[in-house]
Amino acid sequence: KASSSTGAGGMLGEEAAADDRVWIAHPTIDGDWLPARVIARHADNTVSVRSDDRSVEVEQKAEDLFLSNTLPEEGMQDMQKLNYLHEPALLHNLSHRFARDHVYTYTGKICISINPFNWDVSTPLYTQERLLSYRGAEVEVNDPHVYAIAERAYTAILKRNAHAGGSNQSILVSGESGAGKTEAVKIMMGFLAKVSGKGAANTVAERVMESNPLLEAFGNARTLRNDNSSRFGKFIELQFDASSKMCGACIHIYLLEKTRVTGQQLGERNYHAFYQLLAGSDEDARARLQLKPPEAYAYVSKSGCLTIAGVDDAKDYARVCTAMRTIGLSAEEVVGSWALVSAVLALSNLHFEPDPTKDGAARVCDDARQWLGAAAAAAGCESADDLSAALCTRQICARDEWYTVRLTVEQAGDSRDALAKALYGRLFDWLVARANASICPDEGFDGGEEEEEGKAQAEAGGFIGILDIFGFESFQTNSFEQLCINYANEALQAQFNAYVFRQQQAEYETEGVPWQRVDFSDNAQVLTMIEDKRAGLLTLLDEECMLGQGTVGGFFTKLKDAQSKCPNFKVPRIARDTLEFTIEHYAGPVTYDLEGFLEKNNDTLHPDLVQLMQGSSFPLLSSFFGNATGSDDKQAQKKGARKKMETVSSRFRAQLHGLTEEIAITGIHYVRCIKPNASASASAFEHTLVANQLQYAGVLEAIRISRAAYPHRMPHARFVAAFAALHAVETGGKRLRARGGGKGKATADAGKRAADEEADRATSSLMLQTLLPGQQGGLGYWHAQSKVFFRPRVHEKLTLRLRHALGGAALVVQACSRARSARKTFLLTKKGAQVAQRLVRGFLARREFHRRQAARVLQAAVRRRQARTRFVAGRVAAVCAQRVARGWLARKLCKTLVETRAQAMIGAHWRRYTQQRYFHELRFAVVKAQGLLRTKRAVAKYLRRLKDAKARGLFEFQLSKLREKLVAEGDSRSDLENKNRELQEEIERASAVREALDAQKAQVDELAEQLRASNEAAAKESAVRARQEREHEQVIVKLRMERDAAKKAAVGHLREERLDKMKEEQKRMYLTHEGELKELRAMLAQARRELRAVQKERDELFTQDRVKTCQLEDIKAEMRELGQYAGAGAAARTKARPPKVAPPLGSPEYLMATEASRRATRGVGTYVPKPRAPGGPRHFRHLTEMRISEDCVHAVSITPDKSRIVTASDDKRVRVWDITTGLCEHSWEYESTPRALATDSLHVYAGFGDASIVKYDVGSWEATSFASGHAFTVYVLLFAKGAPLVGERHATPMVSGAGDGELRVFDAAACTLVHALRGHNAAVKALAAVHGAPLGASVMLSGGDDGEVRVWEMATWTCLHALTGRGSGINSIVSLGASAPTADKPACVRVACASDDGYIYSYEYQKEAGWGECAAVSAHKDVVWALGSISGLIVSASEDKLIRVWPASTPPPWECMETLTGHGDAVCCLAVTQNHVFSASSDGMLHMWKLV
Question: Is the predicted pLDDT of residue 430 greater than 90, yes or no?
Answer without folding.
Answer: yes
